[in-house]
Amino acid sequence: MYLSEVCIKNFRKFGNPGLHLTLNKGFNLFVGENDSGKTTIIDAIKLVLGTQSNDYSRIETDDFHISNKNSPENERAKTLEITCILRDISLDEAKHLLEWLSFEKAKGQTVYVLHITYFAKREGKKVFYDVKAGIGDGGKLLNSEARNRIRATYLKPLRDASTELAPRKNSRISNILNSHSAFEKEDSHFLLETFKEANKKIDSYFKGKDLNNEDLPDQLGKNLLEEINTYLNKFSNKNNVLESSFRVSDLKLRNILERLTLEFESSKPGLGSHNILFIAAELLLLKREEFDGLKLALIEEIEAHLHTQAQIRLIEYLQEEAESSKIQLILSSHSTALSSKIKLENLFICNNNNIFSMRSDETELLKGDYLFLERFLDATKADMFFAQGIIMVEGDAENLILPSLSKVIGKPFSQYGVTVLNVGSTAFLRYSRIFRRKNSENGLFNIPVACVTDLDIDTNEYICDEGLSEAYNEKRQEKKASIIERLDGQVVQTYVSPYWTLEHDIALSELRPLLLKAILQAKKIQNSDKHGLTDKKNEVVETEIKFLNASWKEKNYTDFQIAYDIYKNIVTKESNKISKAIIGQCFATLIEEYKDKEELKAIILRDKNLKYLVEAINYATSQGGHKND
Q1: What's the pLDDT score for residue 129?
Q2: pTM (2 d.p.)
Q3: Is residue 336 domain-resident?
Q4: What angle separates helix 396-408 from helix 580-592, to the nearest 10 degrees?
Q5: Are 456 and 503 in contact (CB under 8 A)?
Q6: 3-state helix, strand, coil in the chain (%, to 5)
Q7: What's the domain count of the chain?
Q8: What pLDDT score was predicted for residue 498?
Q9: Residues 395 and 462 in one domain
């Protein structure tokens, strides 16, 4: 049996009609920015199912949904409802839950289904709730035995694993061990017999006699106990004289287990190691073969206290374990490393008061896209799952230049939560389809995705005295429309270079002097370890710039001819190619160090050749705004 669906209405950020979430049978990882709903999902499941460790969970008035944060208190929802639906219930599992089971058809067969609903209502500051199983008005209260069979294992965020594994009354490790088949024989267990033997030796020490009733060499224990009993004799009623003895009290197996601690043999392990040990102990409970109940673990911030490589080892093992066994894992994470290492279909992105599954039946991703993304989706690209806006680019130059331009025009990406995703090619669809849904009625992402791409038409054969030929203009409009038609959809908007490539378009713009300086700096840097980005006043660079400008003037070159010459004969000349990444780095640095930022901002905003870059930045920072006309 596993948790198949969760339906939430009027609980925290999920209002009415609310959220209907279908889970994977094995592994589920929830990611997203802060306050996107990850904890709400796990808390909702805890309220309905309860936890093995009986964690305190209670609805407060603040948990009732407010549709508008500015609305008065009396507009807060009066009721909330959370339903968990369990499926794949075996006969052994069903026999303990028959009173509450429903039936439905699946693949021509009648199968068992268990609906469990948590219903709460508020009256002023008081909150009342019921948990019932069954459909509609036929729901009945679950008894304690049934509830114990559907409880989830829960690991809270920022957990103190060392405390959880330490000896104490009702400790977590004692609960885990007590539920294991190794400790079923409570009256004749090896540990119980061991402690009984220990008690005999303890008793003999304080009596001063060994087990053969001979005096011990050490009589200090006997003297100590006699002194205590002397005091008791003085304090006692003469008709009821009190007497004491030392022993391990409450000789029951459960009490013995509460005295145990689980720890490493090596000394001074860190928080991360304790976290792994704690998870290992919980898996012990979760994988009990003899247990015919729900085997579900809820783990918040699975990466707590773990470095990247340890995170990856852990998540890879848990994913394999969930697929190969009958356990279900629901995890939340802020880790890009983990997000990039799981199968994409096991991922859920929390955004826009909704939860978006990456299963193939819900996204527009094709089968080949999943294979591609499993090969190339790394931690840097997985940052898009946590972003508030995304700009997809096809190369290193755009990746370096766009953040600098965004700062100048007053839209710094860091302040708007925008991630620049370098797809390293024109494979935009592979990534952008992640954010396109097959059924838009179930909600759309609120993450604006801007694809910035080159037009990639060589302008040389179309250059004429007036600039560019009409044939070129027709061809570029036709190709631009084709690119946009292929890539655009839902929250994905495409911004195409007006002529050729990024470098060519900047060479056409008023930023040409900065680009030319960046190109010549890059040429020196890539051919020598002696030069760096600070060599701004290098005489050779300045001399070469003057020479090039004089040459173009002498040849009476138009702007398009100059731009072509810069891109084709300086940047990409086969005999001496200059790295576009280094050019982008140099250009970005010149942008950052430009003295008059207001002047630079005015240049960028008014230049038609840079318009598509400005529009892409504006859209990515718009939190779901519309593409500029």
Answers
A1: 92
A2: 0.84
A3: yes
A4: 10
A5: no
A6: 45, 20, 35
A7: 3
A8: 92
A9: yes
